[in-house]
Amino acid sequence: xxxxxxxxxxLPRTSFAMKAQLSQREPExxxxxxxxxxxxxxxxxxxxxxxFVLHDGPPYANGHIHLGTALNKILKDFIVKSKTMQGxxxxxxxxxxxxxxxxxIKVDQQLGPRxxxxxxxxxREECRRYALKxxxxxxxxxxxxGVFGQWDKPYLTMDPxxxxxxxxxxxxxxxxGNVYKGLRPVHWCPHCQTALAEAEIEYKEKVSPSIxxxxxxxxxxxxxxxxxxxxxxxxxxxxxxxxxxxxxLAIAFHPDHEYVAxxxxxxxxxxxxxxxxxxxxxxxFAQPQILARFSGKELEGLKAKHPWLERESLLVLADYxxxxxxxxxxxxxxxxGYEDYLTGVKYGLEIYTPVDGEGRFIPQVKRYGGLNVFExxxxxxxxxxxxxxxxxxxxxSHSYPHxxxxxxxxxxxxxxxxFISLEANGLRERxxxxxxxxxxxxxxxxxxxANMIAARPDWCISRQRLWGVPIPAFICEDCGxxxxxxxxxxxxxxxxxxxxxxxxxxxxxxxxxxxxxxCSSCGSKRLQKENNILDVWFESGASHCILGQxxxxxxxxxxxxxxxxxxxxxxxxxxxxxxxxxxxSPYRTCITHGFVLDEQGRGMSKSLGxxxxxxxxIAANGAEILRLWVAMLNYKEDARFGxxxxxxxxxxxxxxxxxxxxxxxxxxxxxxxxxxxxxEELLLIDRWALDRLFDVGKRVxxxxxxxxxxxxxxxxxxFFTNDLSAFYLDxxxxxxxxxxxxxxxxxxxxTALFLILRETLLLMxxxxxxxxxxxxxxxxxxxxxxxxxxxxxxxxxxxEWLTPEEKQDFETLLKVRDKVLKALEEARAGKLIGNSLExxxxxxxxxxxxxxxxxxxxxxxxxxxxxxVEIKPxxxxxxxxxxxxxxxxxxxxxxxxxxxVGKSAEYPELCSRCEGVLKGEG
Length: 922
What we know:
Blueprint: H1 22-36, H2 38-45, H3 67-85, E1 95-96, H4 101-111, H5 120-144, E2 155-156, H6 160-175, E3 179-189, E4 194-196, E5 201-216, E6 232-239, E7 250-253, E8 258-264, E9 267-272, H7 276-283, E10 289-295, E11 303-305, E12 312-317, E13 330-332, H8 338-346, H9 373-387, E14 390-403, E15 411-420, H10 427-437, E16 439-441, H11 445-455, E17 459-460, E18 462-463, E19 474-476, E20 482-483, H12 486-499, H13 503-506, H14 509-512, E21 527-529, E22 533-534, H15 536-541, E23 557-563, H16 570-582, E24 587-593, E25 596-597, H17 614-621, H18 623-632, E26 639-640, H19 643-665, H20 672-675, H21 684-705, H22 709-738, H23 744-764, H24 769-778, H25 804-829, E27 839-845, H26 850-855, H27 860-864, E28 868-873, E29 880-885, E30 889-890, E31 897-898, H28 912-918
Parallel strand pairs: 1-2, 6-9, 7-12, 16-24, 23-24, 25-26, 27-28
Antiparallel strand pairs: 3-4, 3-15, 5-6, 5-14, 7-13, 8-9, 8-10, 11-12, 15-17, 18-22, 19-20, 19-21, 27-29, 30-31
């Protein structure tokens, strides 16, 4: 009976399981981290070190996290964990945006009719409870992702201390003269009945009316242009908002554009000269004749008649008039457009807004009073048909602003609102200078935010809702004067810091104001509270107020990182508040990532059936799979996710895990402190592997510095797949399994494996915190080994492991190996051999290769995984590889073929190498 030598082999042993079972194992690791108080230990261990602060942009405290939220939090965790492992003290304080429309609308839906019977305080308390509920839910979901942070001490925008700080920031803007109240058009949501900031607007396709309307000219141009004598002259405008025509007070022309008076039939129409052919074709004017040409500035001050109302429309000049579409003559309603408003102010026009907060015409508007503006559109069009002022009607699909929360179309509507002036104290220019000082990743972010800041109007900071921080403004009951000041705001802030912003609704005005406060206009003390709340973008934009309050959270932050929609949102508001209050940008580096799409590049939504819950992925596959997905992405672009991508992720993770498992399995009897060999005693092949690790490690550490996580993943993945699994680990198996356990050649291999394991675990710890922790626990103990990998530092990479000459030699050997592998594959396909150990390789080589192959001749069988190698000189420059069956018999222990198998009386089945190992001679 043949003897079994399996028990004599050094086969791998490890408790690091092949099957990850991440969904079960990860929660156990989280519990262990919490019982160890690991995060507190991390902070304690880095005390006294340089500080690096990533400031968390607060997510809304409503709903479960989605893939986009997960992407964002995981990226932040990559940064914080890697900075910690670089030796920084990098505290992460998560935050939540707790006020605002999203939460209030959800609570409104829950309360239903009951809301009408509830007090303001009762409604606000319902909002608070709702926010707290989802803070707890999201906190647990973020922790489940493996994100480290001060979860027990987050910053909440509804905390009294935070609310007070927000009011102090308002006080600073009041002191600088940047805050004012004015009547001007803002985005208004009739459904939510509140003003909206630009960041609260979503642009979606909407089908609107497209109409051409004539305004009869009242002023006479015939003295200067006799061809117009006795003619009926009208100005043609084009608009997609018929409902704004009742508010028309002017028509705008560009001062430098040429306009023409064209005759069509019995009438004469004024349009821009360059647009005349398009307009004539659109309106079906056959062979129109141009009677006069004039510049826009010649029309300034003339008057036209409103299409159906007994009202005049003033002809005005505006540089924003373009010739891209329409007629070059722009319908102007100062109460319903920002540019219209500016023109109205310039010409002293009334800021007329005949529309109420519900988006309905006020009763004073004849025929349309009480009608919703969008419902009024077709009625207005029909009325103009009857009046003969409508030249053409149609429809156009165009990008139109919608409310971010209720998804309904919004309107521009002039209302009395609070604003922060971007011109006072040069706020806009100072902000633009700060933009130049910030590092933007990707670089195009600088131009994007600079353009937004340059073009944005004054910041509307008031909202007409309940759930938020009240603006500390009062109204004199006797003369109607607004009463607000830095002193008043600071006093209100001190009350909020003790009692929270509910105090505004619980206390009378007299208890909120400093003693002896009087109206500056009439001296009255009879003051009442205003009931506007602050824009939540001001609240979240002030979140850097938490920086500088503690020594480990200095101001400004080193990094902000959010989705690219935040150029007009949090990045913008934070910059404005930072420059306005603290005279600088609150961030040194600003990074943006893309949105999450499905595998076809579509946005994810439940209606499309392509929405994937992160919690479902985690429950089935583990959080590590999501983290690996984030690491694989070039996050600066939109990210895709779906079933096929998930399959690839699971396979990629399996390869990484199996590589670490192989390394661990072959270190079961290795004590790094006792068994490691010095560099000079390591075999060349082992030093080659460590040299490759050195190159990869340098690339990875630089990628962490550059926030290039996909470079980290792909560098390590290629190292695992190409250098280790496909080559080094394969040729190592014979030496690891068959050599004497304590032999120098095996210890050389184990020394290399240990260093590869330790350093790749450290390099991947920020990316795969659960798996690296599990592997860290299973690896051999060594001097100064931390109890958790997350307490350790990144590896200090040693000097290069190969000399330049050795590197050149190894490149030569690998090129020869490629040719050998090809020849072996052909021999296998031709049924000459099965396993490569059955082969003998004959190398016919040119003279140039002879010295290198002679130098490493004894290593060639190991390098090629064959039983024998023979070298012959070749006359051909390319050389030649021949495969034949190896001589001798198969060793039953190592499976190599050898001529000395069968020569031993005691172990006739073994080669001399294996016999020596069993006799203790190897």
